[in-house]
Design brief:
Shape of chain A: globular
Largest sheet of chain B: 6 strands, mixed
Number of domains of chain B: 1
Number of helices of chain B: 9
Oligomer: heterodimer
Order of helices and strands of chain B: HEHEHHEHHHEHEEH
Strand content of chain A: under 5%
Distance between the termini of chain A: 10 Å
CATH class of chain A: Mainly Alpha
Number of helices of chain A: 5
Number of domains of chain A: 1
CATH topology of chain A: Non-ribosomal Peptide Synthetase Peptidyl Carrier Protein, Chain A
Shape of chain B: globular
CATH superfamily of chain A: ACP-like
Helix content of chain A: 55-70%
Structural class of chain B: alpha/beta
Largest interface: A-B, 20 and 21 residues
Strand order of the largest sheet of chain B: 1-6-5-2-4-3
CATH topology of chain B: Glycerol-3-phosphate (1)-acyltransferase
Radius of gyration of chain A: 11 Å
């Protein structure tokens, strides 16, 4: 799976949790999930679990803590997919 | 894997000992302020204390208190309801550590010093995930030393006045998952004058409090286990809330 495909899927998964539609419209790898997209921090676990389901991977708590930007999510998923 | 360094661990143990040293001053002071300054009363406090003390006699392993959250001083009221001041001075580890919102409680040097003294580790809700993980690891470490901790699993005060499962923050699940045999004291606290959330309960308010002790476990792995355990705790608090309102119908 290409990085762009992973990025697109990540963005699609994030969509229902996003509270800042304006930032979401111009989402890039550097976009912060919590600060820019205003995703509720408590819902970040649900987002990560959705990543696990979509990509059939397992993400540890420590890896999830490292997810700050959309690009971080893409990087971790890419690593897990090997 | 813990984010705590040896230096962090030493700092936490020092904080605990500083709090313990000054405990005979600040613990009764807070209890008196609640009772005589604000005029708060807790119904059935004697029975609550007997039950809690019996629980601590029977179980001295890791204990996490999880409660609904309606005011900024819920943790102090819960502590007062569970045991008398003198008992906390003798059993300092049973007085729960708290993780108050930094913006509310630790915004100045004086507040920081007070928060340090009274077994608190400030947290920025919704802040950097690594900082939050560090605070949770601190609590986990302290609980491993036999300390009791208190977390509001809703993350913040309930905006609707009722327990909001949808607001569940999953930090509680992470702590319980990390500490084998950890029990959770689920608490429901509500003052007669408390319709929705507020900074403080109304002066002279009377409180009802109920608790139950559970040992949540999960067959799941990773973050699913974290979520599963957190939801078990939330469901127990919701059940306590239902019992509270059923009793008033």
């Amino acid at each position: 799976m290409s990085e762009q495909e992973i990025f697109d899927k990540v963005v699609k998964i994030l969509e229902p949790y996003v509270k800042n539609e304006e930032a979401f419209a111009s989402v890039v790898k550097e976009t912060s999930i919590l600060e820019d997209l205003k995703v509720n921090s408590a819902r970040l676990v649900d987002v990560v679990l959705a990543f696990e389901d979509e990509f059939d991977i397992e993400i540890a708590d420590e890896d999830a803590d490292a997810v700050v930007t959309v690009g971080d999510a893409v990087r971790i998923i890419t690593e897990k997919l090997g | 894997m813990s984010t705590l360094s040896e230096r962090d661990r030493i700092a936490l143990r020092i904080q605990r000992e500083v709090g313990r040293f000054f405990g005979p001053l600040w613990i009764p002071l807070i209890a008196c302020a609640l009772r005589f300054g604000f005029g708060y009363r807790i119904r059935g406090v004697r029975e609550l204390r007997q039950r809690f003390l019996a629980l601590r006699r029977e179980f001295d392993g890791p204990l996490l208190i999880c409660s609904n959250h309606l005011t900024m001083i819920d943790s102090a009221i819960i502590a007062t309801a569970l045991a008398p001041s003198w008992w906390y001075c003798l059993h300092f580890s049973a007085l729960a550590w708290n993780i108050p919102e930094r913006r509310n409680f630790a915004s100045s040097y004086i507040n920081n010093a007070l928060v340090y003294l009274v077994k608190c580790i400030p947290i920025v809700r919704g802040g950097d995930r690594k900082d939050i993980a560090h605070v949770l690891d601190s609590l986990t470490y302290l609980m491993g030393l036999g300390e009791v901790a208190l977390i509001f699993p809703e993350g913040g005060r309930s905006r609707t006045g009722r327990v909001e499962i949808g607001s569940a923050a999953y930090g509680v699940g992470r702590i319980v998952k990390t500490l084998p045999g950890c029990r959770v004291l689920c608490v429901y606290l509500r003052g007669d004058g408390q319709d929705v959330h507020s900074d403080l309960p109304v002066r002279g308010d009377q409180f009802d409090m109920e608790f139950s002790c559970i040992e949540p476990t999960s067959e799941m792995k990773g973050m699913r286990a974290t979520r599963d355990i957190s939801l078990q705790i939330m469901n127990e608090i919701v059940a306590l809330e239902a019992r509270y309102f059923d009793a008033r119908q």
